[in-house]
Design goal:
With 182 residues, the protein is α/β, with parallel strands linked by helices. The protein has helices at 21-38, 55-62, 115-126; strands at residues 16-19, 46-51, 70-77, 90-93, 103-111, 131-139, 151-155, 161-162, 178-180.
């Protein structure tokens, strides 16, 4: 079933737009400028996107970063079809690229419990990354998050958000804005 333009999908309805498309676009440009200023070409920047949620954000972000960079992806899951993280992080795909001596920018759609980052950041360091920074589109600022997020697009409300890559059971990713299902 395909969501209607207004965000309806069967009996599920997007309750309210939290971050409109224009606001997201403006903030992505600001983040790209900040990131471009933080690295040098000699850092051999590798931008790693956490799929699937970060794919739209990451595409818009890397097109605006003004440094040479490489792109790869990780697939990790802690939600399944639920609206609350299970707390168990499953790594389904990891990059095959050599991280030795490289600066790695891990791009995340939303920092919720922090469990995914707490598993991935140490793993990337163990694999030889010279530096690992995190850029998240959204951060819920929950006290349980123990990993530093260097760049944050927006502080997010503690509700279930969809759109601009974020989903509920694979629905709503295509929406150009971020909205709440609650």
């Amino acid at each position: 079933m395909t969501p209607e333009p207004d965000g309806r999908l069967g009996d599920r309805v997007v309750e309210r737009v939290v971050f409109p498309e224009a606001e997201i676009d403006r903030r992505v440009g600001e983040l790209a400028r900040e990131i471009s200023a933080a690295y040098r070409p000699s850092d051999r920047l590798l931008v790693l996107g956490l799929l699937k949620g970060s794919f739209l954000f990451m595409a818009d972000l890397v097109r605006r970063i003004t440094l040479p960079l490489h792109v790869d992806f990780l697939v990790a899951s802690s939600y399944g079809a639920g609206t609350v993280s299970s707390g168990e992080v499953r790594l389904l795909y990891e990059p095959r690229v050599d991280l030795g001596g490289r600066a790695v920018l891990l791009v995340e759609d939303i920092v919720d419990s922090g469990a995914t980052l707490e598993r991935l950041v140490p793993m990337l360091r163990e694999r030889g990354a010279a530096r690992v920074d995190v850029c998240a589109l959204l951060h819920k600022r929950l006290p349980s998050v123990g990993v530093a997020v260097r760049w944050v697009g927006f502080d997010a409300p503690n509700s279930f958000l969809v759109g601009y890559g974020l989903d509920h059971a694979e629905d709503f990713r295509h929406l150009p804005y971020i909205a709440s299902l609650e």
